[in-house]
From TrEMBL:
Keyword Protease: yes
Name of the protein: Dipeptidase
Keywords tagged on the record: Hydrolase, Metal-binding, Protease
Superkingdom as given in the UniProt entry: Bacteria
Domain (Peptidase M20 dimerisation) ranges: 199-357
A Pfam cross-reference name: Peptidase_M20
């Protein structure tokens, strides 16, 4: 192991330089204008895997963006770890809030990253994180210390709902067969308190439309006598959550996992720092479901948020108009044992129920995803905890995250393997936001933890 760590130490700077090249590619999966960049990024990832020592590297075509595959099989008697990541990124908008252009990476120190952080779209989500695996693999190959078989599956559609991945996994169960799946696409609690993510929330995402009059109307001639779809929609949205922070949708909590008082006490060992939390996002106060801590509100409890709302006139100056239609996008984060189909159906029923008779309401479901839990009495959890404890020199706690990686549940179903979420970002890294960044400290700790995981997993019990 020492030789592997030495190799990492000696090649640190080059690893960052290579990551910079990857970050310069605008692989925005949501925007068709960037499709050539997404494809170029897949080719680059494949080259990196080949150079690092992977066999059978392939850029696999799908109906959407390609999936990059590579493997190193050293013995049929050893376990196989499948590494999953994504090379696509979120759109960088709004561009004017970036201090430097999103695809021109640079390093700068921040309060939480005194050693410096890499700023660029995708730095933490997920290029900087999956690239740690490529470099850790290179180090293990160079030091001849690879402890088990490894397979890489790096996709290009995660940020748009992993549309092609399920079919690909179903068609390639043999090729992808593995004992566990290792994913670095989440964050730790803090650099002082490292964590292994043991849960992710699911997702139900809908778009709603409220239609009033059959055309936009003069607000003087008609105002006062007709339903204004923007008002109606606003009233409906405000009815979805009550004063105690409870979601009012009929049956919404029916299947919600009741976390025991013991488990809640255990998870609250991660000290909530309400002041730091508020300050980090410029808030005077927080809010949420009554009787739960911020940590619980953002992990073991389901939520509902309006992500966008529009309608009517939003251009320069004033236009006196009552719009014909108003729209909103609404996301709900789910916990075990809610399912996206169940919640989307309950939302649709309820939203129609609270709609006044004088408007027409349409609910359009978008992509969704199942929640996921990795029990802490599993071999993969123990291997990750021990690896990170060695790398950080600190006790590592389990941590349930509020984000979603829907494919983890699909992997378990189709490949019969658990995913272990050994991510290294911080929640303040501004993923999906302007000035996304990833700490150099985190990048290197990740590269060091990965070979330790392989070793612990292979030799552990
Ligand atoms: N890597 C994130 C998810 C994440 C980040 C989980 C940090 C936990 C901690 C992933 O790329 C992502 O953005 N997922 C989406 C869902 C997806 C279906 C678009 C999300 O959580 O909004
Ligand atoms: Mn991600
Ligand atoms: Mn993301």
């Amino acid at each position: 192991m020492q030789e592997t760590l030495n190799y990492i130490q000696q090649n640190k700077q080059r690893f960052v330089d290579e990551l910079f090249d990857l970050l310069k590619i605008a692989s925005i999966s949501a925007d068709p204008a960037y499709s050539a960049e997404v494809l170029r990024c897949a080719d680059e990832v494949a080259k990196h895997l080949t150079n690092a020592g992977a066999d059978k590297v392939e850029v696999c075509k799908t109906e959407g963006y390609p999936i990059v595959y590579g493997e190193k099989i050293i013995s049929a008697d050893l376990p196989t770890v499948l590494v999953y990541g994504h090379y696509d990124v979120q759109p960088p908008d709004p561009l004017d809030l970036w201090r430097k252009p999103p695809f021109e990476p640079y390093i700068e120190k921040t309060a939480l990253h005194p050693d410096g952080a890499i700023f660029a779209r995708g730095a933490a989500d997920d290029k900087g994180q999956f690239f740690m695996h490529v470099k850790a693999f290179e180090a293990m190959m160079k030091a001849n210390s690879l402890a088990c078989n490894v397979k890489f599956l790096i996709e290009g559609e995660e940020e748009v709902g992993s549309k092609s991945l399920e079919a690909f996994v179903k068609q390639n169960t043999e090729k992808l067969s593995c004992d566990t799946i290792l994913i670095s696409d989440t964050h730790i609690y803090s650099n002082e308190q490292p964590t292994v993510t043991t849960g992710l929330r699911g997702l139900s995402y809908v778009e709603v439309e409220v239609e009033g009059p059959n055309r936009d109307l003069h607000s003087g001639l008609y105002g006062g006598a007709v339903p204004n779809p923007i008002h109606v929609l606003s009233r409906m949205i405000s009815k979805l959550i009550d004063d105690d922070g409870h979601i009012t949708i009929d049956g919404f909590y029916d299947n919600v996992e009741v976390v025991s008082a013991e488990d809640r006490a255990e998870m609250n060992k991660l000290k909530d720092d309400p002041e730091a939390f508020k300050n980090s996002i410029g808030l005077k106060g927080t809010e949420g479901e009554k009787d739960y801590t911020t940590l619980e509100r953002t992990s073991i409890r389901p939520t509902l948020d309006c992500n966008g709302i529009w309608g009517g006139y939003t251009g320069e100056g004033a236009k006196t108009v009552i719009p014909s239609k108003a729209f909103a996008k609404i996301s709900m984060r789910l916990v075990p044992y809610q399912t996206p189909d169940e919640i989307t159906e309950k939302f649709t029923k309820y939203f129609n129920k609270i709609a006044p008779d004088n408007v027409k309401v349409t609910v359009r479901p978008h992509h969704g995803g199942m929640p996921y839990v990795l029990p802490s009495d599993t071999k993969e959890f123990r291997a990750a905890k021990k690896a990170m404890e060695t790398a950080f020199g600190k006790e590592v706690l389990p941590y349930r995250s509020g984000g979603s990686i829907p494919i983890t549940a699909m992997f378990e179903q189709v490949l019969g393997a658990k995913s272990v979420l050994m991510g290294f970002g911080l929640d303040s890294d501004a993923i999906h936001s302007p000035n996304e960044h990833y700490g150099l400290f985190n990048f290197y700790k990740g590269i060091e933890s990965i070979p330790l995981f392989f070793e612990n997993y292979t030799n552990g019990n």
